Amino acid sequence: MGRNGLTEFVPSRQEGGKGVDLNIFLQTSINGLMIGGVYALVAVGLTLIYGVMRIVNFAQGEFVMLGMYASWMLATFLKIGPYPGLFLVGLFMLGIGWLIFKTLINRVVGKPDEVAILLTLGLSTFLQNAILMIFGADYLTVQTTIKDAAFNMAGLSVPYARVIAFLVALLFVGLLSYLLAKTDLGRAMRASAESRDIAILLGINPKFIFTVAFGIGICMAGVAGVLLTPMFYVYPGIGTLFNTTAFVVVVLGGMGSVPGAFLGGLIIGILESLTGTYVSLDLAPIGTFMIFLIVLFLRPSGLFGRSVN
Amino acid sequence: MSKKMKYAVAGFFALLILAFPLLVDNPYIIHTFFMVFLFATMGLGWNLIGGYGAQLSLGHAAFFAVGAYTAVLFVVYKSITPFLGGVVGIVFAVILAIIIGLPSFRLRGPYFTLSTIAAAEIVRTLLLHFQDFTGGANGIPIPFKGENPLFLQFYSKAPYYYLALIMLIAVFLLLRFLEKSKIGRYLAAIREDQDAAESLGIKTHKVKMIALIISAAITAACGVLYAFTVGFIDPDSIAGLSLSIEIAVVVIVGGIGTLWGPIVGAGVVILLTELTNMYLGAMRSGASLMLYGLLLIIVILFKPQGLSALFRKKS
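The joint structure predicted for all components is written out below.
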């Protein structure tokens, strides 16, 4: 098992010195692209929250973790598999997001970044350890019938779990983009993001808009968690991994940019997969963080973002 | 309280702290107070950049680990005293601080915080990866070769207690000096309004860099002392995000940007952690860290100036 807690087969390092084996390269890239879709989903939720209300949410990974546990509980106690349970968990996470916003986040909107960072950091530590106390540190797995089945094409084999995760993530990001671009709610969100005062003048209630945006952001993390349960072990600390990855993705795409976060997620997914295969599996996170520091150094506004400060 | 009374009380506490290892011979309790001093020292160091400069670092564990690992590896492979290895470790930590600060201090917003996390994760991953050299996830023990002050090895816990106390006092005096110095005033200006500070001609990223370098050096020194006191280090416990968070929580609970905050915070947080570990730890793991999280949430929402503000109001 790699340190990421990945349960499925990962293509082994290339043998011998016959140069780059194209098949392994493609296989690795596709696997990375699929998981990148899920990273993108988590990051899009994170960037939406930052973009709309300037809250840096350090607990985003923990909401992925909560989604995973919710999915595990549905599968274990009610025999509802991850995919049929997706909408139940999505609704549940929307509720959690609403609750967290009303009780905690609401109080720090408009304050300096550090306040929100510390608050959500406290929340992240609290959630992670509350789950540890309730469920223990055991690695849990969710059994699905398609777990080991794979989609074969042209000599490449992609596990169904990954294909589904990618497609569902794509669907959710698409729905959010549509919501932001074409609906009144989306326009209200963008207006509140631009200027709270002008939004109020236009008759928009920013509190309501912030609540909705936060709920959607958290819901996306939870849904990502559900999509990951067939592939990853479920344990209390797994959120940390997605927290850091999501931030790298968001910075790469430009903070607050939804299409940026989406493309950033795919890039990081592929990159991590390639580092894992061609360098070393346990060094995979290093590639990600190096990219992060390099992007900060060369292009802090992100690859697709508007300029900061 | 009259001034005389205050001095008498302060004197009494000073004597009590000095004589403590003579009065109590339970090594566990001595070690707990060692941890209070150590976290107070790290908190003072963290506060320089995180509090006075308002640049939130969540990667100080990296400096701690770089200091600790360098000193320990020097002892294990070359039998070189930690007094020398520790200095090399501090130099490495300073280099790391420059690498983190260079790209991120030019930017506003959460970029600095994110780079500190990224840098610490790189350090932790590298320590895990090069296991033939560092011991990997299993960690690396320091072989005990009998009492030898030159190698920071003692049978009793008391010498470590005093070393930590000396370090705490030294760093406290340094911070008291820095607070009043040009650097301290520049940092305060940056915290209040970075644009105004810049328009006054303060080279903000240079000032922040100096603060981060001093802060990193203090943290690395703490890492060295910790490693030799415990006799064992491993990447997940000393280079992980949770240690970075603990350092920050200590300061925030005590009072961010204040001289006494880290000391009050270390006392409250470390003693509270030990108590919960003692009573709840046996039943369930995670209790003490859950408390950390809760404490952080409560302080941020209701008492952002920290607990040491309670004392200030009274006196």
